[in-house]
Structure formats: C-alpha cells, structure tokens
Design goal:
Length: 291
Amino acid sequence: MNKRVLLFIVALVIIVVTILLLKTCNKDVAPTKPLMEVSPTEITMGDAINYNDKTAGATEWEWDFGDDEESTEKNGTHRYTTSGEYYVKLTVNGTISDSMLVKVKDLQIKDTTNNVKIEIDGPIETKVGQKVTFKDNTPKATEWKWKFGETGAIDSKEQTATYTYKNPGKYMVVCTNNSSELQGSKQILVKPDIKPLPAGTTKPKCPTESSIQLYLQRIANGDFDKAYYEMIKKCFCGDETITVNVNGKQNNDLNSYCNGIQIMGNIKILKVGIVCDENTGCVTKLLVSQK
C-alpha cells in the first residue's frame, strides 16, 4: 500500500476516535453532590440567610438548617433564633447531599471597652407595605448601620432610617454606630395588610374549626413544614402573629405556639375555636383545647 495513503488512513482514524471521545466526555454526567447556595454564612442572630439550589435535574429538595427546622422548597430564607454554628444540609432527589457551615453571632457584642448604650426610637408594630422610621440618639455618633431583619443586609446608613417590610412576622431592628461598641435593638411586629373587599364582592368563607384542628394535629405529629405554611396561607391570610389562647389560660402568637407543639410532640388537639373576620375570611384569634 502506498505510504502516503497509509498515513492518510491513520490520521483519519485518529480524528474519528478523538471526535468520539469528545462526544462521550460532553455527555451529561449525574452530579455527585448538589449545587447549593447559602448566603451570607456569617450573620447576627435574627438576621436571615438565603438558600437556593441549582442542581441540574433536581425535583425534590430537603433542607435541614441544623436547628430542628426544615424546608422542602427549592429556595427561600431562614432565620436562627439562637447564636452558634449550624450546618445547613441539602439532600436532592433523596440521593445526593452536601452541607455548608453558617455562623450565627450573638445580638450584642460582649466584653466591650466603649459601652455607651444605644437608644433607638421607633414603633413596635406596623403593617406590610407601611413605611416605618427609626432614629438613633446616641451622643457623638456620626456613622450608623441599620438592619431591619428581613434581608440580612445593611438597610440604611443614616441616623434616621426608614424601611418598608414586604412580609409579615416578628423582626429585630438592630443599629450600630461609631460611638459605641454595643448594639441597639428593638423588636417590631409586622402584620399583613388585609384590604377590605370592594362593594358588591362576595364575602369569602371563614375556614372551619375542624380543618384548623386537623392542621394543628399534623403539626403536633411532626408535619410542621408542609402543614404549618399551608394553614397560614389558607386560614390566617399569612398572619403568623395572631393570638392563640391555650386551655383558657396561656396566650401566645401563632408561630411560637406551633413551634412549641411540634417540639413537645405528644400533644392531642381536643377542640378548636376561632374568631374570624367575615369581611376577609381570615382568622384573627385562635382558641385551643389540648392535652
């Protein structure tokens, strides 16, 4: 065989094999761990972390935040109520998992040398969409940092700070300045902005007491993540702050109550009574009998 022809055939074979190898390498390879995102990973108690997953082909998510709280959503936010170090673990499709460390600092800096107390003025209650104003009156301060607890970020650097909450809940407003090593803080309750229905609109129906009883029993049995948020949306118009009266004695907000019965575990919900706004169909107070 002609030597030049032989060299041509060999070169052609090499090219074909290379192309096949490249195609094989470019095929989708099943990931060995999820592409999880958690930020920020160092926060102050009461601030929020943002979590998200970008794993290709993911259809099921199991987030474990290390504080007995979980989520099955692809993304969202989470707040820690106690300082410490927590491993946020994500399991995707029930098969692959990974974790990231989140450090949560105490709300107040300890062992300070300049311990001028920061006094901040501001409301203790507001509604979603309503602007709130807070002011720091610390002497000699010229620089400020305000965190309103909803985003986890610094929301203002002015002496008088304004903010508009987008979601209901309890938040810790925190202020630091260059005149003190301490932090000033104040808790604020943000209620949903429930607007009245236009004239002539059919009034929505209030949820039944039996349906809320079933939700509460599911939460007490450990199905918090799904049952709680479904109940909040369908029965309470997103308001986690309504008053819950337990056995005619103890009053608590709805979020704290539901977290409590989940932790205790062996709770039997015997009867539920409600106070409902007939114009909105939203429950405004909950009466629970349990043992």
